[in-house]
Amino acid sequence: MARGGSGAEYINHSCDPNLETRILKEHILFMSRRPIPAGEELTLDYRFAKDVQKYECRCGSPKCRGTINLLS
Fold first, then answer.
1. pLDDT at 8
2. What are the two backbone dihedrals, phi and then psi, of residue 15, each rounded to the nearest 5 degrees?
3. Where are the domains of the chain?
4. The dihedral sign for the CA sequence 61, 68, 40, 36
5. Which of 61, 70, 71 is nearest to 12 (CA)?
6. For residue 33, how many other CB atoms are within 10 A of its CB?
7. Among 20, 44, 53, 59, fewest CB within 10 Å belongs to which?
8. pTM of the complete model
9. Closest to 11 in 3D by CA, of 20, 24, 23, 2
């Protein structure tokens, strides 16, 4: 078990993320979707459920859907 956090607290939301998650033997792994240059922010698509409170997205991606929640 991690002490003081897993590191996931440093991963922010983007509608066009550079990371994806994979589950392997009860572990959540963060895998890059493409090469990530040094200093680039690490991002995931949080994909909040569409039926919960809506959260505005300001990720700045050309693919931004305007909300962190799924649209459909």
1. 79
2. -75, -15
3. 1-72
4. negative
5. 61
6. 12
7. 53
8. 0.81
9. 20
* CA distance to 6, 25, 30, per residue, from 16 (Å): 23, 27, 15
CA pair distance 66, 4, nearest whole angstrom? 32
- Tokens 């929640």, residue located: 69
pLDDT tens for each residue of the chain, 72 residues long:
556 777 778 899 999 999 999 999 988 899 999 999 999 999 999 999 989 999 999 999 999 999 999 987
Q: Rounded distance, CA 6 to CA 32, Å?
A: 17
Full 3-state SS string of 8-55: HHHCEECCCCCEEEEEECCEEEEEECCCCCCCCCCEECCCECCCCCCC
Q: What angle do CA 44, 14, 10 make, to 5 degrees?
A: 55
